[in-house]
Design brief:
This protein has about 130 residues and is mainly alpha-helical. The protein has one domain (about 1-130): Four Helix Bundle (Hemerythrin (Met), subunit A), CATH 1.20.120. About 75% of the residues lie in helices and about 5% in strands. It has helices spanning about 10-40, 45-65, 75-95, 100-130, and strands spanning about 1-5, 5. Helix 1 (about 10-40) packs antiparallel against helix 2 (about 45-65), helix 1 runs antiparallel to helix 4 and helix 2 (about 45-65) packs antiparallel against helix 3.
Length: about 130
């Protein structure tokens, strides 16, 4: 596959595929946390939340290593919004009574994650698509 004259290696394509798979699984985890919270089991989702937060960190690190100019990209800015909302939910897990986790999940974290997820898919597909001249 070509990218502006450069060959996108098979190895990078595999990395992109793994990032997308992890992003899908992370979304499923966030949706499960939201569902359990709606059922009144917020505290029971702490371990899953830790896994979700870890996966976000791993994806950010992989993207920083794999994508040119990631640090200045819109994708990174969207990632920061996801992390900010995730930190609010973390505060709720840590006992901050000021934070309403269901509201943060519904109105901030999940919408931010979905925007990031969509942008991630577009960016990685663009990286892999042959450039038409």
């Amino acid at each position: 596959m070509f990218l502006g004259g450069d060959v996108v290696s098979d190895q990078k394509v595999i990395v992109y595929k793994h990032i997308l798979e992890l992003a899908d699984t992370t979304l499923e985890g966030l949706e499960h946390i939201q569902a359990r919270t709606m059922e009144g089991y917020f505290e029971d989702t702490a371990n899953l939340y830790t896994d979700v937060a870890d996966s976000m960190c791993h994806m950010q690190a992989a993207l920083a290593a794999a994508l040119p100019d990631y640090e200045e990209s819109d994708l990174n800015k969207e990632s920061d919004k996801v992390v900010e909302s995730m930190q609010l939910v973390l505060a709720a897990y840590e006992g901050d009574k000021e934070v309403r986790p269901m509201e943060v999940m519904q109105f901030a974290m999940l919408p931010a994650y979905r925007r990031w997820h969509n942008q991630l898919q577009e960016e990685l597909l663009e990286q892999c698509a042959p450039k038409m001249h």
